[in-house]
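Now for a chain:

_____
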Amino acid sequence: MASAPAAGNWLRSSRVRSPSLQIPIHRGLFKRALRLAPVGELAEKIKIQQRRLAERVMRANAQGMPRLDAVMYLSSALEAYRELDSEGQKQLLAEAGAVGQKGLSINNPDQNHLLQHYRGGSTVSALQVVCILYVGVQLLLPGQDAGIDFAREYELAKGMAGAGGDGA
């Protein structure tokens, strides 16, 4: 009977070599680990590794280029935040953050979420939720880690949205 790899080993082994082979294995391991440790420091470390893996897959799929779908979602989010007053912006950021806490599969376009505070209530993809969250953090909590690096895409989106980035 083969023994399971030590937690530290499989957490560090998430290099994207063949997304079709590696990702289902890692997803299953992450889910099993979170069932064993659903809260606490270990759960947070697992969630961080999940986000890192998802970001690496996203970047691998884009072959090193900026994700144009993310640019469009970020631009739309910038415009949406601009349309809201200060309280509405905070509500949108809080709602996107709450949805994100449940887990988002940003590389699965079929995973949809309803955001009541986004453009009067809209169903958006997981990647859109992350983009809305990213913009909110950039505008309302500058300098904070949004959990994913969309810096290149955000700069392009600011140019598209006509904002110097000071925006909301």
Summary: Residues 1-23, 164-168 have pLDDT under 50 and may be disordered. Strands lie at 112-115, 122-125. Residues 109 and 125 are 6 Å apart (CA to CA).
